[in-house]
Specification:
By secondary structure, this protein is of the alpha/beta class. Helices cover 41% and strands 14% of the residues. It has a single domain, classed as Metal-dependent hydrolases (TIM Barrel, Alpha-Beta Barrel), CATH 3.20.20.140. The chain is built from 10 helices and 9 strands. It has a 6-stranded parallel sheet with strand order 3-5-6-7-8-9. Helix 9 packs across helix 10. The protein is globular. The two termini are 32 Å apart. 46% of the residues are buried.
Length: 252
């Protein structure tokens, strides 16, 4: 397995506090069959700023520690980028990191946003050669209340990334139902852990994939696995389930 969204680097955000915690998370991931992780610390979210150079330095140090401790895992640099006004300028200047140096850019929606402004941003990113990946749309209040908006983003070329704890009900039943609805309706292309600490929002990728297999189907679960590999190799993703014409769906 490949995990494209994980807070694995210590001391950069609300992820692990120490290198020992990072290594503990890495061991757990490896035991669950994860062989590559994109470390995605929060960036520009009003609380944390993690410029690309600092992320790359921390990733290099962690990879050396993984080798020394014989943990069969490779870590790649990335960021979970909260959408902000200067995003495009900073991207052009090399201050932002796509997932593992691919063209896939992990974006977190702000609490409040304009649909037209988001579409303009996605359009500009496409012109620059990037693919917007929307992190945990199933947890954004606006999309939970009206998931058809996520379908509009997908129709416009965005990618949906669901996270493990949502599928496992760790954020409540409404979020779980929204996550499964988005999976079934063709709005989700990737599954990632969004793990933060060894025992707080920890690693449960294997359980999340079992949930997908049981609730949506083994074929879709395999597509998600393959898409993670393709994204890291900077390849086009396989089709998610057919995007269905949406009616408004409220989960809370």
């Amino acid at each position: 397995m490949i995990d494209l969204h994980c807070h694995l680097l210590p001391g950069l955000d609300d992820g692990p506090l120490t290198w020992e915690e990072s290594l503990e998370m890495a061991r757990t991931a490896a035991k669950q069959g994860v062989r590559a992780i994109v470390a995605t610390p929060h960036h520009a979210n009003g609380r944390y700023d993690n410029p690309s150079a600092e992320v790359k330095e921390s990733v290099g140090r962690l990879n050396r520690a993984l080798l020394e401790n014989r943990i069969p895992l490779t870590v790649y640099p990335g960021q979970e980028i909260r959408i902000y006004p200067n995003l495009l300028d900073d991207l052009e200047q090399g201050k932002l990191l796509p997932l593992g140096e691919s063209r896939y850019l992990l974006l977190e929606l702000p609490d409040e946003w304009s649909l037209s402004a988001l579409m303009d941003l996605f359009y500009e990113l496409k012109l620059m050669g990037y693919v917007p990946v929307i992190a945990h749309p199933e947890r954004h209040l606006t999309l939970v209340r009206n998931s058809s908006l996520m379908a509009e983003f997908v129709e416009f070329g965005a990618i949906g990334q669901v996270t493990s704890h949502s599928l496992l009900g760790k954020y409540g039943n409404a979020i779980r139902r929204c996550a499964l609805h988005m999976c079934r309706e063709g709005m989700i292309h990737l599954l990632s852990s969004d793990a933060h600490r060894p025992r707080i929002r920890g690693y449960e990728m294997d359980a999340a994939y079992r949930t997908i297999e049981r609730e949506v189907g083994s074929e879709f679960a395999q597509t998600l696995r393959e898409n993670s590999r393709k994204a890291l190799r900077n390849e086009p993703l396989g089709a998610a389930r057919h995007l269905k014409k949406q009616r408004k769906a409220w989960f809370i």
